[in-house]
Every structure is written in C-alpha cells, then in structure tokens.
Design goal:
single chain, globular, Aminopeptidase, 2 domains, aminopeptidase, 358 residues, alpha+beta, Elongation Factor Tu (Ef-tu), domain 3, 27% helix, 9 helices
Length: 358
Amino acid sequence: MNIDKNTTLDRIKSLTEMHGAPAFENDVKEYMKQQMEPYIDEFVENRMGGFFGVKKSKNPNAKRVMIAAHMDEIAFMVTNITVNGMLQFTNLGGVANDIWQGQRLAVKNRHGEQIIGVVSNIPKHFRTGNEGAPQIHDLTLDIGAESEEDVRDRGIEIGDTIVPNTTFTQLSENRYSAKAWDNRYGCVIAIEILELLHDKELDFDLYVGANVQEEVGLRGAKASAELINPDIAFVVDCSPANDVKSTQSFAGQLGQGTLIRIKDGTMILKPTFRDYLLQLADHHHINYQYYISPGGTDGGEIHKANIGIPTAVIGVCARYIHSTDAVFDIRDYYSARELLQQALLNLDDDQIYTLQYK
Ligand SMILES: [Zn+2]
C-alpha cells in the first residue's frame, strides 16, 4: 500500500495553513479525526484536548504503543486594543523578537473568522540608525482598523489568537515553505501511518494521535501518557535545521534524512531503542542523521511518566521554524515515515520487552 504524493501534499497544505495556537487546537483536531476515522476502531481523548485513534489488535494480551504528535504551533495572543485600533499581543511559545516586523499575521476572532493584519515597523525614512530590535510587547498588529470600536465590530477581543498568514508553497522539486511544519509534520505522519498500516494485523494496540500545548512547555504530553499508559512510545516532531551558513555536526541538514535524536535538553534516547532504529534504517536503506539539541520534545515528559515509558523521537528538521515560513525537504518526510513504519512492523512482545528492560 502506498499513498499518492498529491494526497500527502494536500494534507500538508491543509494542516500547515490551519490556525492552531496552543490551547486552541480544535480545527487541527477535527481535520485529523476526519482523516484518521477510516483506519481506526475508536478515539480516546484526555481532558486537556489531546486525542488518539486506536487500532486494536486481535492479540488478547496486546501491549500498547503510542505515537504522539502535537497539534499546536507558535502563536500570539491579543493583550490590548489601542484607541487607534492597533492590536498589542504576547507570544505563546518561543519566538525570536527580531523576525516579526512587517510580516502578515492572521487573528482568529470569536466567530472563527480569520482577519489579516501587518505587524507595524518603522520605515527607513524615520530611522535614526540606533533602533535595536523591538521586544514582542513593543509590536502591534495593524488590521486596517481606525478605532478600538472598529476592531470590536470585527469580532476581535482580548485573548484572541494570532498566527502567521502563510500559504504553503513549492520552492523546488523537493523543497517547500510553510508555517507550522513544526509540528503539522507530526500530524501528517500520524494520519499516514494509520493509512499505511490499515491492512496489517499488529501484535499490539496502536494509539496514534496528538497532544496540545507542546510549544508552551510540553504541557499536554503527560495527560496523554497517563490516559493511554503505553508500553513504549514514539514522538513525531520537527526540529530546527542548522545548515544555512555551514555544515555543523549534529545540526540537522535538509535532505539528509530522518533525525535519530540521541540527546536533547529533555531526554536521552535509550541505547537499545537507538540500536533498534539504526538497524532498521540500515537494513531498509533509510536515510538518517544523528541529532543533538538543547531543546526538547513531548518525549521529555512521556519517557518519565508512570513507571517509565521507553520513548524515541522520529523527527525531521526544517529551516527557520518558529517563524512565518519554514523550509523543509519532502524526502526527509518520506525517510521518517518509512522508519516509523518499519519500527512498528518489526515490533512484537519480545522486542517491546527488550526496549523496556534491556
Ligand atoms: Zn516548536
């Protein structure tokens, strides 16, 4: 079974263009559920908003395997509406201060409508040359309103969320730009792994879904781990590439394959789990690269939950994540999807025991 490339690209376009700020992930969730429905037996949901489709095994003593993406993206929240109709905002998730001036962002109002604005900036004519980069709280979003009342008439209130207004774009044969590839990558692979495994009888119950609020400090992962109590887990997430100026070791290079994330600020990959993935990648000729990062993923919370849940991150890298446009290479997506598929197809009770206790 294979998935047509255009189907994958349609899913990437739909998901990356969705508005899914931390704690406001419902649009993403509805889309994922609708796409996953044909391939699962039921959905389970935690009370923070994370959800998982369950593919049940015929094995009466089936173990549980979890695959978790996260649905949220870096975003902003409206904190004030000025008398002249500008929106002030605060960030939801880690963003650099100096990349927002002049960008187009979209506010989602209380009626679910998207309203586009431009982030204020000072033109060259009015600059002295001594301006530093403004802080996020110095920026305003200009939606073309003439007064505070004008803003409220358009259904916008304090607390509404803002994300980049970015169209998914093909740049070259294999490379694309989009907002929120961190982590709609995970959302796409979650849908497609279920589709790919649809006809396969697995030894274990497979829980595939996504957490909320990763970008504000891995807040949604624990509730999912405790809901499912999996025997092992895979996290699917996107990490920053660092290959623009020069090739640095462990930085993540576009087009060089899926990431074997051996150490980050929140988790060290278990050696048995590392070797399991490496042996599969070698055997199936899947491109991969080691990845070490000071950052973290939901794996940081999941692997410590309950009595310990061996967890591996199946990742990809992309340039300029946490901005209006990330650039990624579709071949890396396919490498990650192939590795995840092989990791599941080769999993049985003995292998799960090895990953847990060896
Ligand atoms: Zn992120």
